[in-house]
């Protein structure tokens, strides 16, 4: 027969998370937290789904802050590159629209030139000589 382990309060769970962060320098996994509280992983996950979701979203950083800084830097670089990519895509779209407009203008000018060349030109009269 299994023994009954009383469930900790959410306040106790949060205190255990803080204690683990202080000891290891990183956010614990749900399994590590369940073990720390003396609960089975499934029992912990079943009774504290919000805490498990928060733990799942927390970045896993090494004990030093360098890894967290690197992670943050990568996120910022990624956001910057996405913005730049969006800007470049807009520029390409604008360039395509400009090229299309110029192609239409070019076609119209060629048509106008062809029509203008069909006009019969009159020879210039030779200037009268004086003298």
Structure description:
The protein is an all-alpha fold. It has two domains: 1-58, Arc Repressor Mutant, subunit A (Orthogonal Bundle); 64-115. 70% of the residues lie in helices and 0% in strands. It is built from five helices and no strands. The chain has helices spanning 10-24, 30-37, 41-47, 49-57, 65-117. The N and C termini lie far apart (137 Å). The model has no long low-confidence stretch (mean pLDDT 85).
Feature tags:
131 residues, mainly alpha, rod-shaped, 5 helices, Arc Repressor Mutant, subunit A
Summarize, please:
With 131 residues, this protein is mainly α. Helices cover 70% and strands 0% of the residues. It has two domains: 1-58, Arc Repressor Mutant, subunit A; 64-115.
Strand content range? under 5%
Distance between the termini: 137 Å
Our count of helices gives 5
CATH class of the largest domain, named Mainly Alpha
Provide the helix percentage. over 70%
What is the structural class? mainly alpha
Low-confidence stretches: none
What series of H and E elements makes up the topology? HHHHH
Number of domains: 2
Q: Look at the structure and give the mean pLDDT.
A: 85
CATH architecture grouping of the largest domain: Orthogonal Bundle
Radius of gyration: 38 Å
Strand count, sense and closure of the main sheet?
none
Total strand count, please?
0
Cα shape: rod-shaped
CATH topology title of the largest domain = Arc Repressor Mutant, subunit A
Question: How are the secondary structure elements laid out?
Answer:
Layout: H1 10-24, H2 30-37, H3 41-47, H4 49-57, H5 65-117
């Amino acid at each position: 027969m299994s023994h009954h382990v009383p469930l900790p309060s959410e306040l106790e769970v949060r205190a255990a998370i803080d204690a683990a962060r202080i000891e290891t320098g990183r956010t614990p996994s749900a399994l590590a937290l369940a073990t720390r509280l003396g609960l089975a992983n499934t029992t912990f996950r079943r009774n504290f789904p919000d805490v498990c979701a928060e733990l799942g979203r927390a970045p896993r950083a090494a004990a030093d802050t360098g890894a967290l800084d690197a992670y943050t830097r990568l996120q910022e670089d990624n956001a910057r590159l996405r913005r730049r990519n969006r800007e470049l895509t807009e520029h390409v779209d604008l360039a395509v629209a400009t090229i299309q407009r110029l192609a239409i203008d070019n076609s119209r000018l060629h048509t106008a030139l062809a029509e203008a060349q069909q006009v019969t030109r009159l020879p210039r009269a030779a200037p009268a000589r004086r003298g």
